[in-house]
Amino acid sequence: MSVLVTGGAGYIGSHVVRLLRQRGDTVVVVDDLSSGVAANVGDAPLVQLDLSVSDAVDSLRTVIADHGVDAVIHIAAKKQVGESAARPAWYYTQNVGGTAHLMLAMEAAGVRKLMFSSSAATYGNPDVPPGSLMRENGPSSPISPYGETKLVCEWMMRDAARAWGLRGVGLRYFNVAGAGWPELGDPTRFNLIPIALGQLTEGKQPVIFGSDYPTQDGTCIRDYIHVLDLADAHLAALDYLDRDDRPYDIFNVGTGTGSSVSEVLEQIGRSTGYDVRPTIGDRRPGDPATLVADVSRIADALGWRAHHDLAAMVDSAWQAWEPTHGAPAVRPS
Asked: Global pTM?
């Protein structure tokens, strides 16, 4: 199979590209390199392109034709919640506009298989009892422009299925962490684990935003998924598109088990050897107490399940982080 991976030079995309190539698929990557790293794709062909620009459709059609593309994995998107609140129109242009251009190119080229990178941000701040699992058929009420763009793209995928026969499937990511290979670690500081690692290696202590939630230890609970498990789910979803019997087009991707912020920081201490003593700050607006995936649908329909636990995620994240960012000679105490 020849697969086009948009965003394939990024943190998640590079893991997907590597797994595809390991199983023998041909891969071409399209990435604007705003956050991706060209070296991450190895010797796979890389086309630098912003999907939101006006001539992106023609450029994508050329890429599809030149590489005989059979299917598309669409990961390219802007993904920072705070930034989306500050620049909503730009986020819609990038995420919704870019996806529309990709679908137009696919329709024109006769490519009908699309695996779309969605997000648990589509659920928003769910009004559900504490401890409830998020189900794909539950309410979707995103509270950020970022989450809204992902939900709109899910709608677009369904509309294209009705209009011209697109075979689409979306994966709603939960909290992605870890590294499948040290050179493919998350280089950003937008998620809890890399934020905490960055603070600790700078001699600081992490901050917990709120310790009075209705959870066992008072801190928020999230579902953390190892990036290598997530990448493997992309391959399972891509293969699902070859089936005539496809009862669902949206799947949660998580472990089905939640970890609190305090538990994650405790594991970071065990993995790194740092004396982690977080400070407590105020709650952040919009943070739900618990957000954990119901993963029964993806297990039943795709036969997929996660294999890595929290310790493996943090261990691998630290192994990827330390050589690049270094660590002080004396660990904070």
From this structure: 0.95
